[in-house]
Amino acid sequence: MAAVPVTEPEPWRELFVGFEDQASRLYRSTKNNFLSGWTTWKLLPMMWKYRREIEWRQFWIRAMYLVLLSFFNGICAWVESVRFRKEMVEQGELPDDPVIILGCPRSGTTLIHMCLAADEEQFYSPDLFQVSFPESFLTLNPLRKWMRPLLQGETRPMDNVRLSWELPSEDELAVAALTGGACETMALVFPSQWKSVLHENSIHSASEDVRHRWKEAFTQFCRKITLFESKESQKCTQRRGRRRLLLRSPSHTNHIRQLLQIFPNAEFIFVHRHPLEVFRSSLHMVKSYVPFCTLQHCEPHDLLQYVLENYRTTMNGYLDDRGLIRPGRLFEVGLGELEENLQEGIRRIYHGLGLFDGSIKPSLIHHWKLLADFKKNDHQDVPYLVECQVRTLWRRSFDAFGYAN
Prior knowledge:
Blueprint (H helix, E strand, L loop, with lengths): L18 H8 L13 H10 L6 H36 L7 E4 L6 H9 L5 E2 L3 H5 L4 H4 L3 H8 L19 H9 L14 H8 L6 H28 L8 E5 L7 H7 L4 E6 L2 H19 L6 H22 L8 E5 H6 L1 H12 L8 H11 L11 H10 L1 H6 L5
Parallel strand pairs: 1-3, 1-4, 2-3, 4-5
């Protein structure tokens, strides 16, 4: 009798031990889902478009929960459009000089965002509540305290950062809600179709219609955040100078050309991290977060390929286009430098942006110390053959930022 050949397990499967059981439990959750703030006229067309991809038998509870929420969101959005339409037209200005934080997911962009957003004399930035409910946050603002326990967990699933509606957050989530999914984030909802979703919604390969919708939604949200800042400044008894809009979304790292067309005087902060650390942290992120927002079963190999390709295309886009930024308007920093001395690293960013006036408030320094003491997750080791694949696919990033050795 012929011997039966023994198939060696693929090395990447070591990275997903226990994932299936963990994910199946999270599929029943209705919290931590960035689709929770969508209105009916955005959610239902998206669901119809992907009706064949949604696994209704597995996710019908989540889908129906989102539909019910969308009716509430739609009513609030309609009220807001009536209440603030005139103000948006007359006062909704688009600033031309925001500070935009760039960097791949899990490279340290959240840390820099939290550090700078704490400086309320210099910056204003969209928070988690505003990006979650971009069409109704002005109306719902008095209710944010009661809404958080219903929609959010205590911490972010991927890194245990404490969740609050006031947490500075990615404007990309607002764009997703305003466009009905015309952005790269939708790959997290449909991980089995990540390749087609990225191709359809990436700013470089998308249709002219998708690009137009993205630009309209993005600028509309920035105007609305600026209007909110203006209204809050009028309430403030303490006189303060002009503040600058502070933005962060990992997808912006590949949007430099488009951002410069919208904001000709923008300044950029780019943070990089050792690619292997990014890989380990990104893999942990998709395993811990995607099950909260997906509408289909997560296949481990799809998640792995998404992480590999998303980083490669994002970083290649940045390296191709960073030369378009005028000299003196781009500041690059490594996460390793910030981890060694966060206060000094942030001071260097202030100097690089020309914001440092010789003194920093003690309360701000205290806040930075608290962030510096935050304990990061410990991630599992990467199998040697997988590491070789990462080094091959991400070689350009290893070389560009001195991580080759």
